[in-house]
Write a sequence for this structure.
């Protein structure tokens, strides 16, 4: 494998990892506040649809992005209503959201565009274009570092850069601000937070809505940057891989970056090489596809490092129990 | 003191939730410019208005009874088995292995063999998440989700590389031999007007028997009592000498086996071969069915029938009202799960208030 191939592989790794990273960070906020979210998939899907649909109708991808985020936040608010206000089962609410999104996107898409659930192909300003960073052209001649800068680091869409910037930002928000401390505290011991006079409900809603915004960006990236339009079920399980990455990352922002990149790399390798032969032994492509899930089960089993979820995760908070 | 009578809890609240879900679905239909009333008429007529419709409705219902019971049994032990999809896929593998490995002389013997195969494979696929939950505390919801994806990758691999008929491009097994095909409703009761190709088959009786067996297990055996006790209060159950590891393992194995049994209907009864996705989302429908049916076999049976009507009616709707796509089903399904499951308190609290004020008035 030569240097150019490695660069190409890493470039597609970044492209695969971007939506995973956004969704993983989204789940991080929600689960750190004690709200399990298996509806990442659905929120991504609905955002992918509305961002592509509105971008196609208005010809402006930024308006599309806003529409995508709004739709995802709406589902996040529904999740909040069910799991915070009405103290329902968070997992069941997540399952319901995934179904709703899978259905609504096709039903409304069919009614708006009559293309069997697809949106029209996005062209021109209807899509996020790849940004060439300054001096990328000039530096490409520099050995090793030049191509890395001009081909790997430069040349992604604005949303990808936002995704990667969200990692230090999330770390700072969660671990260096009062808001972050409270958010993490309601995920560990909501009763203590309540005693300190801080609203558990408000902190959890804030976390769930941030989750909605981030999954919204993730969905918009899928439909308006990675692809040029929406396809039925285009999130294709990425929300669940992001959930796996979140567990793999042990609910920490920087680890979320590494886990997303790892799962992105697996995806890129699986897409590029169908079956990988090591000597006489052939690794089937299906194994590569299943590997993120297998790794997550191994991590969850606690045989290789233990992943301990936020203590109050999944439990509705009832004052004066 | 009970806040409301029992009938309100088991019948009234699911009914209100269902009406709410259908109401929101009606708004969606209205939004895309069609008449919800007309859509409802088409769905009811398409699903139960003819022997043809009943053949499909009961076929789907058979699938949903199995997956609904699977979720329900796990619910009794307060566990959420979201892995019905993967367990049923593995059940399909079990059915295929049994059906293809022996020259079955008669379908009744093959049915017994396939039932054992499906249950074993389904249970085996639930065993690892169950063990990890019981012994290592890994959250069963996450592990069963992961196992769904692993199952689907495994099935694709096996169908492409192991079971595929040499020379054929299609990733599916060979068609089962004559002795391993189940008689359908036309073969059993031609006088009822079922068409020769109706998918409804004798597995329906297996599903009904499973309902009865699950009822006996949960409410009439010591084990069922232990499962319910554990689900009611883990600490209480432990104090009473019930071993949590044993309860988690047994209830999940039963749950996985029930999900696996679904495959005798879809793989052996209908397709008569194992295809790449033999479950078609029925594992997830089981969640809605168990929630609506309040985890009781009778409730599960009725809810499965309702979802069978929805699925068959939805297919007819797509045919007669092309503006409404088939995915409308997923919207209804999502709404039913939302209202009966997650938003239960939203419906329950006002109803409780009404009953309390009635009692005070009396």
């Amino acid at each position: 494998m030569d240097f150019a191939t490695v660069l190409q592989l890493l470039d597609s790794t970044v492209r695969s990892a971007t939506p995973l990273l956004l969704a993983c960070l989204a789940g991080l906020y929600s689960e750190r506040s004690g709200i399990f979210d298996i509806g990442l998939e659905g929120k991504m899907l609905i955002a992918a649809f509305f961002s592509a649909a509105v971008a196609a109708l208005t010809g402006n991808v930024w308006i599309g992005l806003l529409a995508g985020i709004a739709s995802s936040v709406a589902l996040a608010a529904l999740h909040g209503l069910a799991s915070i206000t009405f103290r329902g089962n968070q997992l069941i609410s997540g399952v319901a959201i995934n179904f709703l999104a899978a259905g609504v996107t096709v039903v409304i898409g069919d009614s708006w565009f009559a293309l069997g659930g697809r949106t029209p192909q996005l062209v021109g300003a209807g899509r996020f274009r790849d940004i060439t960073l300054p001096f990328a052209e000039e530096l490409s001649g520099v050995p090793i570092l030049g191509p890395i800068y001009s081909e790997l680091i430069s040349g992604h869409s604005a949303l990808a850069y936002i995704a990667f910037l969200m990692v230090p930002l999330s770390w700072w928000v969660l671990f260096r601000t009062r808001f972050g401390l409270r958010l993490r505290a309601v995920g560990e011991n909501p009763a203590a937070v309540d005693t300190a006079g801080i609203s558990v409900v408000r902190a959890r809603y804030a976390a769930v809505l941030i989750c909605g915004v981030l999954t919204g960006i993730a969905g918009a990236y899928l439909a308006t940057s990675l692809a040029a339009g929406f396809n039925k079920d285009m999130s294709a399980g990425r929300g669940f891989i992001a959930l796996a990455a979140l567990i793999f990352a042990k609910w920490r922002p920087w680890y979320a970056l590494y886990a997303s990149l790892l799962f992105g790399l697996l995806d890129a390798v699986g897409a590029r090489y169908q079956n990988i032969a090591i000597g006489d032994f052939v690794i089937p492509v299906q194994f590569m596809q299943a590997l993120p899930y297998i790794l997550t089960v191994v991590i969850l089993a606690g045989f290789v490092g233990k992943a301990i979820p936020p203590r109050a995760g999944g439990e509705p908070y009832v004052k004066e129990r | 003191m009970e806040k409301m009578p029992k009938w309100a809890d088991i019948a009234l609240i699911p009914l209100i939730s269902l009406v709410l879900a259908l109401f929101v679905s009606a708004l969606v239909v209205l939004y895309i410019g069609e008449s919800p009333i007309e859509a409802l008429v088409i769905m009811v007529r398409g699903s139960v208005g003819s022997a043809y419709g009943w053949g499909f409705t009961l076929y789907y219902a058979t699938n949903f009874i199995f997956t609904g019971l699977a979720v329900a049994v796990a619910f009794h032990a307060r566990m959420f088995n979201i892995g019905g999809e993967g367990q049923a896929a593995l059940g399909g593998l079990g059915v295929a292995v049994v059906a293809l490995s022996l020259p079955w002389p008669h379908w009744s013997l093959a049915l017994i063999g396939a039932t054992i195969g499906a249950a074993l494979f389904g249970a085996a696929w639930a065993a690892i998440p169950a063990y990890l939950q019981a012994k290592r505390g890994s959250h069963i919801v996450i592990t069963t989700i992961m196992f769904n994806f692993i199952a689907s990758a495994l099935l694709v691999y096996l169908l492409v590389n192991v079971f595929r008929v040499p020379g054929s491009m299609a990733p599916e097994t060979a068609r089962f031999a004559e002795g391993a095909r189940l008689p359908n409703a036309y073969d059993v009761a031609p006088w009822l007007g079922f068409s020769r190709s109706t998918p409804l088959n004798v597995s329906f009786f297996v599903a009904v028997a499973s309902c009865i067996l699950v009822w006996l297990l949960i409410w009439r055996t010591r084990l069922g009592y232990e499962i319910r006790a554990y689900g009611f209060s883990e600490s209480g159950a432990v104090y009473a000498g019930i071993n949590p590891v044993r309860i988690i393992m047994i209830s999940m194995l039963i749950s996985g086996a029930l999900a696996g049994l679904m495959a005798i209907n879809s793989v052996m009864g209908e397709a008569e071969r194992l295809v790449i996705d033999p479950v078609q989302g029925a594992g997830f429908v089981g969640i809605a069915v168990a929630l609506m049916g309040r985890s009781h076999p009778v409730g599960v049976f009725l809810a499965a029938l309702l979802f069978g009507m929805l699925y068959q009616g939805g297919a007819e709707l797509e045919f007669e009202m092309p503006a409404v796509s088939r995915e409308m089903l997923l919207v209804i399904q999502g709404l039913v799960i939302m209202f009966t499951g997650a938003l239960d308190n939203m419906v329950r609290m006002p109803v409780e208030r009404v009953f309390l004020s009635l009692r005070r008035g009396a």
